[in-house]
Design a protein that fits this description.
Length: about 130
Amino acid sequence: MKNIYKVPFILLYIILTSSCSKNPIIGTWQYDGGLYNGREQKVSPDFQMQRTYSGNTFEAFLIEGSAKPELYSSGIYVIKSDTLMITSKFSSRPSQNTDQLIIYNYVIDQNRLTIKGVLPNGMIVEEYWKKVQL
């Protein structure tokens, strides 16, 4: 009789662990342009920006040519439904966004991540990121 009660708990454990491990944002993403207050910004030919999401943390790197990638930002994030909540805990440059919660709506379409939100300074952003296969 005791084994009957174990089955629901085992199924619940499998469901929870499988849904937690399917975080769609985990991986490395490369900046692919965006809109800032409605103005288009294209990818720079001089450098690349990449973000790597793992677990509940992220790291953002600036890559110039063959130089070693420079960590310019890192912090924590939470995903709830179609919402990505980011809090930067480190910035290599002065930033108003450090320790500020920024809430984005996000969509992943194949290997393209689109995030939309409003920064603490009021700037409306829509950024495009493409998945990097390492």
